[in-house]
Amino acid sequence: MRSWSAAEVPSLPVAAPQVCVFDTSTGQVVPTEPTGGARLYVCGITPYDATHMGHAATYVGFDLLHRAWLNAGHDVHYVQNVTDVDDPLLERATKVNVDWQDLAARETDLFREDMEALRVLPPRDYIGAVESIPLVIELIEALQQAGAIYQVEDDLYFSVTADVDFGTVSGWDREQMLAIFGERGGDPDRPGKRDPLDCVVWRGERPDEPSWPSPFGPGRPGWHIECAAIALEHLGTSFDVQGGGSDLVFPHHEMSAGEVQVAHPGQKFARAYLHAGMVAYDGEKMSKSKGNLVFVSALRRADVDPMAIRFTLLRQHYRSDWEWTDDLLWDATNTLDAWRLVVANPAGAPALPVVQEVLAALADDLDAPRALRAVQGWMEASRGGDTTDPDASATIRNLLDAALGLVI
Fold first, then answer.
1. Residue 360 needs a FRET pair 20 to 30 A away by CA distance; which of 77, 140, 177, 315 works?
2. Cis, bond preceding 251 (omega within 30 deg of 0)
3. 285 beta partners
4. SS3 per residue for 254-293
5. Per-chain mean pLDDT for the chain
6. What is the DSSP letter of 10?
7. What percentage of the chain has pLDDT greater than the value 90?
8. How many CB atoms are located within 10 Å of the residue 151 CB?
9. Whole-prediction pTM value?
């Protein structure tokens, strides 16, 4: 599957410091220590609807990590999946009377357009669930050899107790897991399961659903095994960061990690787990089921500057839960207009201290709000008459683009 086009990233006069991030599995801010290039996996969309602000906030957040690593001198191997076959997609296609493949292709194209507009750097490998089926089969066979797979009717399940570290990604106890598992794609009450938390890795063929041949019979992959197999194939074990929204902590990231760690004993799935906060609208988490969505594409069609959308997202720390409002967007639009007036003058306040402060803020758990405050301080000093640096505006524009993905 093709990715989207990459924006050119300007070079900066100084290198960024070592990047530290908040690791969900330890509850601490930890240094990232890439060896032989930084390796990042971020869980992608299920393409049955357009990109909403919850999606956008997540991918802009991890774009900050991508850029921080680049500015620190690391090559970055970024992988993202597309769950282009799954229950929500099939249900949506049936509801709107559209072929599921056509729906997936259309919404994936729209997602690409939204990411390009928001200047999110693309993954090196952009992999669909359908094209990863051979990888899924291979991983299931490895789990069978480890004795961690069993059958319930035509479906195959992963036994979570086979992973001695199960629960360490989320830090949740069984009571917490059971309370949420059914709401997030699990089937804790299915008869025949050995443990209510066991997850399906191969869903046997159902009437009127797509299926593919396998050694286990026709069917299709489970959700968690898809990401596990793709990450394992393209990044190997113990890659630097597994990322996604905070709603993926459990079960998705817990299950994916367990499957790889059982298939490869003694290896960690990822070194650190990063999770973006949830975005609300009208008082509730933004979600398709609630219908309270603000779409990137709808704003773009209304001639809203994509940089104002990105600026609005950057004003929130990537880990925080927050609520989208029109007032936030219009304030971001006005701020960008004011900044553009300042940088129209080539000279400004000394730029190098701002470069260093912005890079330091982003290296400290991707603190974009702190970085923006540093730039705002430079804007105010330059507007106030400090124009002692004759090339300051060009440096600041390059900084905003390279570190924050903003073009002004």
1. 77
2. yes
3. 280
4. HHHHHHHHHHCCCCCCEEEEEEECCEEECCEECCCCCCCC
5. 96
6. P
7. 96
8. 13
9. 0.96
Neighbours of 363 (CB within 10 A): 22
The two three-digit tokens of residue 155, written as one number = 């479906």
Q: Give the separation between CA 169 and CA 242, rounded to whole angstroms.
A: 10
CB-CB contact of 242 with 257 (8 Å): yes
CB of 18 closer than 8 Å to CB of 71: no
DSSP state of 382: H
pLDDT digits (tens, 9 = 90+) for 20-56: 999 999 999 999 999 989 999 999 999 998 899 999 9
**Cβ-contact 5, 116 below 8 angstroms:** yes
* Cα–Cα distance measured from residue 339 to residue 336, given in angstroms and rounded to the nearest whole number: 5
pLDDT at residue 402 above 90?
yes
Strands (E), 159-300: 199-204, 219-221, 239-245, 270-276, 279-281, 284-285
Of 189, 190, 199, which is closest to residue 228 (Cα–Cα)?
199
Structural domains in the chain, CATH included, are: 20-285 (3.40.50.620), 306-404 (1.20.120.640)
Q: How far is CA 112 from CA 44, 57, 75, 145, 210, in A?
A: 11, 15, 23, 39, 25
- Show the tokens assigned to 66: 């991508």
Show the tokens assigned to 296. 């990137």
Contact status, residue 185 vs residue 177, Cβ threshold 8 Å:
no
Checking if the pLDDT of 116 tops 70, the result is: yes
